[in-house]
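Board notes (copied after class):
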Amino acid sequence: EGALRARLRFYIKPPQYISKVKKNQQALLDEIIPVGKKPDIDNYEKALYDSMSGIVFQDDGQIALHDVGKFYSLNPRIEVEIEVMKSLSI
């Protein structure tokens, strides 16, 4: 219940043309190469919110602030942080 802040990180397996390049190895380990191609990040985000709705929070309409990133990684996964935002009395 109440407004929520979401931080989402999608770590995607890199294509071979990226993972085979020697100079990319450290950047892949550091997970700092952004994914700038489809699928669109908002599609990932919406699918994740829909899967968490009714379980992690009541409705994805509660998300008032979000920080979302999509990066290549040798360890594909999704990281999710959800926090309740402090409400101001009006």
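Comment from the instructor: The helical segments are 16-19, 25-30, 41-52. The longest helix spans residues 41-52.
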